[in-house]
Amino acid sequence: MPTVNLTAETFESTVDSDKLVLVDWWAAWCGPCRMFAPVFEAASEQHPDVVFGKVDTEAEQALAAQAGISSIPTLMIFREGILVFAQPGALPATALEDLITQAKALDMDEVRAEVAKASS
C-alpha cells in the first residue's frame, strides 16, 4: 500500500483505526528525512496490511506541535489507536522491519492494561 499524506483533518481518524499505523513526520528541507523516505516507501510496499502515513511538518505545523515533534524525521507507530513507539531519527531498512515485526507481535490486551494503569 502506498503511503498516505496525513493532515490535521485526517490524522486522528487514521491513527485511531484498528490497523497498525506508522507515521513519518518529515519536511522537504530535511536531509535525513529525504534519506529515510525511500526506506519508508519500500516498507509500505512490503506490508499492505499496515497503514503508512506521512505528515509534512511544514504544512501541518499545528499538528506537529500538538504531537510534540521537536526533531525530524520522527517515526510514530500506533496500534489500535494507541501510540506504541515514537523516536526521532532516520532508520535503516532492517531496523524499520524489526520495529514493524515487534509492533505486529504486541499483546494489545497487555498494552491496554499498561495504559490504563499509567493513567490511573
TrEMBL record:
Pfam families: Thioredoxin
Cross-referenced CDD domains: TRX_family
Disulfide bonds: 30-33
Site (Contributes to redox potential value): residue numbering on this chain: 31-32
Family indicated by similarity: Belongs to the thioredoxin family.
NCBIfam families for the chain: thioredoxin (TIGR01068)
Protein name, UniProt field: Thioredoxin
Organism of this sequence: Actinotalea ferrariae CF5-4
